[in-house]
Amino acid sequence: MRQPSSGEALASALSAEYAAIYAYGRIGVRLTGAAREAAHQAEAAHRRRRDTLVVQLTTAGGVVPPDRAGYALPFPVTDRASALRLAAEVEERAAAHWRAALASTTGADRDQALAALVEYAVRATRWRRTAGSSPLTVPFPGRPA
Amino acid sequence: MVLTCPVGIGRRTQRDQASGHSRRKLLRGGALLVLGGAAAPLTGCDLFDRDDQPAPPPDPLRPMVDESLALAEAYRGAATAHPDLADRLGPIAEAHTAHATELARVIGVALPSAAATAPTTAPAADPAGALAALRALEKTAQQSATQACAAAPAERAALLGSIVAARATHQEALK
Predict the structure, then answer these.
(1) Which of A119, B20, B95, B96 has the fewest CB atoms inside 10 Å of its own CB, making it the most exposed?
(2) B79 lies in which domain range?
(3) Closest in A118, A126, A138 to B164, CB measured
(4) Domain count, chain B
(5) Entry pTM
(6) Is residue A110 part of a domain?
(7) Is the ipTM of this complex over 0.90?
């Protein structure tokens, strides 16, 4: 299998950020209090990464994938429990895209990918704790199951 | 004269691993044959053990295998000392063992026995102290894995990235 280029890998990460931002829109409204605030902060983090990627890909003259009006969620979000489950899932999936970018990047770009992978994996763990699920961690964060 | 050692025996560098031969070795072998008549007596294999042909360096990920096994042992030790924590610590110990197994597979070595990597320090007497000690171990280990990931070739970067992230999530899970 051909190794995706750095630009292709970052474009894939950007698509994941779009989807994560969309998902948090559905998640936030099902949460209250500290969990809702945590969802807002998570969404803001994904927006920052999205904005950085758009600038980065544009500057490099690469393809900037467009955002879509909607994204298929892996399961319906109907209450607090399903919202928290989706939040953990969103972070793991976004982490997987950044993990995939590690192989296509070096230097500062790889550092950037690793920082995102670590941040999202840790946030997935926090969501599992909020949800009261166990175990809190997975052996290989971001690795496709 | 008798050449008692084939050219290049036991000296495989990273570069010529696929074929087992390098041009330098073949050239050196050739030079030896030319010299053979005059330069007597030749003493066995000494000519092949020259210092300018170093053994291949150990794989840079080799220490991470031991590090992962030592982390797993530290968790098992803490879980034995504090059974109340066993449910939390067990999955993390298993994750470190899984890392060691995967790293050993990638670098092509057998998984060392855990006994060789047993931690030298006993777990803290109080649960909070034990958790803090494990967090400190994970933090240091996350830093070493981060360096390894930055320096790794493409085909190893994703695995190392997952190990960095796992060690970060372990610190979070221990809070």
Answers:
(1) B20
(2) 62-173
(3) A118
(4) 2
(5) 0.82
(6) yes
(7) yes
